[in-house]
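From the shared-data thread, chain only:
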Amino acid sequence: MSNSSQIQVGIDVSKPIIDCSILSQSHSLPNSPAGFRRLCALLPPNAHVVLEATGGYERKLVTHLQASSIPVSVVNPRQVRDFARAKGRLAKTDAIDARVLADYGKAMQPKPTAQADPTRQALNELVALRDQLVAIRTQLLNHNEHLKLSVARSALKASLSTLQRKIKALEAAIQKQIHSDPVISSHYSALTAHHGIGQLTAATLLAQLPELGAASRGQIAALAGLAPFNRDSGSLRGQRHIHGGRSRVRRALYMASLCAIRKGPLKPFYLRLRSNGKPPKVALVATARKLLILLNTSLKSSLTIPT
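Structure, as tokens:
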């Protein structure tokens, strides 16, 4: 079925409700299995559903639609809001947002989102939770230096101890999840063979950059937010800047690049950029991009499922 023959359906997802725009008609349904079944009954045979990433509230709906063989595209909310502003739609309600998503689908024809791999989904959940606990630990450690009462310091110390145990348990669960899947385990071994890529960096890349090894070098750099974009107008040639992408992946690659710069094979590359007058941050971004492209190439060229 061609994209031009599809009927674009916009759905605005919140925690309790999914607001749907189907053939210009608005429907409000519960964000629950019963609501999903009702939605599928309302959809025309050639429907293509467009919805925004909402931090997790959309996942069960996406899984249900994909299991029902209904194409669904999970799109970037910022791009949808830019599209709405370009059309002069400044008002914002859930029903209006659903109609905007349907119009966005007609105009942009987004590709259907691929069905998520269960192992990567579980790995992503574990890695994200670990990151959150590490952030809380950092906040508590920063607060510790301002405490004077012994009872307060004792309570904070106990909280830190509990957090540390939970972080270690999550790290063990991450390793177990990685090694439960032969393909992901092989990818993990290939990634950690590179200087600067430790266990947690490799886990982050596997969880949050599943396109690694399947995308082109330009695509993978853009997904990580490490691709420089032009800022030219007429005869003016502006500086190139990175923009967007997955911030957690980019941070992991920054840290890996710092390690590779100190002792690894990318040190000459970084030093050459610095000797050519590149500022440290620009040289670091370029090194992180080069490291990412090396990782992408190594996964493309190597791996088969172990027997």
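The chain has three domains: 3-108, 118-180, 204-302.
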